[in-house]
């Protein structure tokens, strides 16, 4: 108050108010455009026939202050809608296209068509080659994965993009043969021959290891014995790993550390582990325990708090967890049990499924596409008006 009074004494109250309003507008606008508040990422899946247009989603994500988005493809409409927003993108090459990428010219053509045209305006920083390849039974695909990753990496180099775009793949947790206690984490025997050279590639290329982690699956499989507090990040005594003496108060961190241990067992301490998917369904079939909005909100809300605290896992306390939440929307066309269609933070109409403090806003424009150039023009006009008003007030 003292400051305001002092300023008020020198400036007429109306001008003081005006300056405050201008500052607030600039601050709010700047935060919206840069989306600098949250270091959480969101998976933007589109297996649905009722989702809003990418340009509306661009507003929603920026109003949520989300600065990282992961796609399962490289949808040009999405990448275009996020030009000049500063939002960072992971784009994906689907499993059906992995083998074709072994051909260097195909890899090069894919990048030239799906990545290069959007750079640098849209910040694409990572390409995932395949998703959960070791979950399936396609042995040709498993064998082709690394050559495809190498080919994409070479193509990035040839196009002068190496260092600006990482190349990796995302795994499901069932690559693990053992994940408890975390220090005894080990890959499945049949996965090791593929994983050993993949780790060599990731270390050489300086790319992260991506893992999709769902403590929900463990709870659903055995709700009578898996403590809900431990999977939902609620206060609990935790579990101590006897060989490291490290205590885990939640299952997600134990899963991540088991992956670090498995990687280390194959000779690598030089690879970052990032969580490319985690989430909790808000609804499920009658036999899917724990799929409620209350538990989903608790899981995501508590996870966001830990991300904001920049916590690391017990084995890597100084490396803040890096997480992409699954998923932005409920996706009505996903196959499988009901839970699969109910992982979204939002319904397709932009209303939140539960409240975890995202202040997301989906603009109600269905037909009129509010393009990026319109947004920029409005922004520029506002700045010019403010400038003119400031000058006028100073001269008066
Ligand atoms: C990816 O695979 C689909 C289905 O086989 C095919 O139609 C499409 O052309 C492929 N895309 C690229 C870029 O290779
Ligand atoms: C893979 O093969 C095993 C054994 O043949 C079978 O039990 C399993 O269901 C298969 N998995 C998939 C994803 O097809
Ligand atoms: C690539 O991944 C590494 C390891 O996680 C990270 O340090 C680096 O910032 C990433 N590069 C880009 C362009 O995001």
TrEMBL record:
Gene3D superfamilies reported in the protein's UniProt record: Glycosidases (3.20.20.80)
Iron-sulfur among keywords: no
GO molecular function, one term: glucan endo-1,3-beta-D-glucosidase activity
Transmembrane domains' residue ranges: 377-395
Pfam family, one: Glyco_hydro_17
Keywords: Glycosidase, Hydrolase, Membrane, Signal, Transmembrane, Transmembrane helix
Signal peptide start and end residues: 1-30
Catalytic activity: Hydrolysis of (1->3)-beta-D-glucosidic linkages in (1->3)-beta-D-glucans
Enzyme Commission (EC) number: 3.2.1.39
Family: Belongs to the glycosyl hydrolase 17 family.
Protein's recorded name: glucan endo-1,3-beta-D-glucosidase
Organism: Urochloa decumbens
């Amino acid at each position: 108050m003292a400051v305001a009074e002092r300023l008020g004494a020198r400036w007429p109250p109306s001008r003081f108010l005006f300056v405050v309003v201008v500052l607030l507008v600039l601050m709010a606008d700047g935060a919206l455009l840069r989306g600098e508040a949250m270091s959480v990422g969101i998976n933007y899946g589109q297996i649905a026939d009722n989702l809003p247009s990418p340009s509306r989603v661009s507003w929603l994500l920026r109003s949520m202050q989300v600065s990282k988005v992961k796609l399962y493809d490289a949808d040009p409409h999405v990448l275009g809608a996020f030009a000049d927003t500063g939002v960072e993108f992971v784009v994906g090459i689907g499993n059906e296209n992995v083998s074709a990428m072994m051909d260097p010219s195909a890899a090069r053509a894919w990048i030239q068509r799906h990545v290069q045209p959007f750079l640098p305006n849209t910040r694409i920083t990572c390409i995932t080659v395949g998703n959960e390849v070791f979950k399936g039974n396609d042995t040709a695909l498993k064998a082709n994965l690394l050559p495809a990753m190498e080919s994409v990496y070479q193509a990035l180099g040839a196009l002068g993009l190496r260092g600006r775009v990482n190349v990796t793949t995302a795994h499901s947790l069932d690559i693990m043969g053992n994940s408890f206690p975390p220090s005894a984490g080990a890959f499945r025997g049949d996965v090791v021959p593929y994983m050993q050279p993949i780790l060599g590639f990731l270390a050489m290329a300086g790319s992260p290891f991506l893992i999709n982690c769902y403590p929900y699956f463990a709870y659903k499989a055995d709700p009578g014995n898996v403590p809900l507090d431990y999977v939902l990040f609620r206060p609990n005594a935790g579990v101590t790993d006897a060989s490291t003496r490290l205590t885990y108060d939640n299952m997600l961190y134990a899963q991540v550390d088991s992956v670090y241990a498995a990687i280390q067992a194959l000779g690598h301490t030089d690879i970052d582990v990032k969580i490319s998917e985690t989430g909790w369904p808000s609804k499920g079939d009658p036999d899917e325990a724990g799929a409620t909005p209350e538990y989903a909100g608790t899981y995501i809300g508590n996870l966001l708090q830990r991300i904001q605290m920049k916590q690391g896992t017990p084995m890597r306390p100084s490396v803040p967890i890096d997480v992409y939440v699954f998923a932005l929307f409920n996706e009505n066309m996903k196959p499988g049990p009901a839970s699969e269609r109910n992982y979204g933070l939002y319904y397709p109409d932009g209303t939140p499924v539960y409240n975890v403090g995202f202040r997301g806003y989906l603009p109600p424009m269905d037909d009129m596409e509010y393009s990026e150039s319109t947004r920029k023009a409005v922004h520029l006009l506002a700045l010019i008006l403010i400038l003119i008003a400031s000058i006028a007030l100073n001269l008066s």
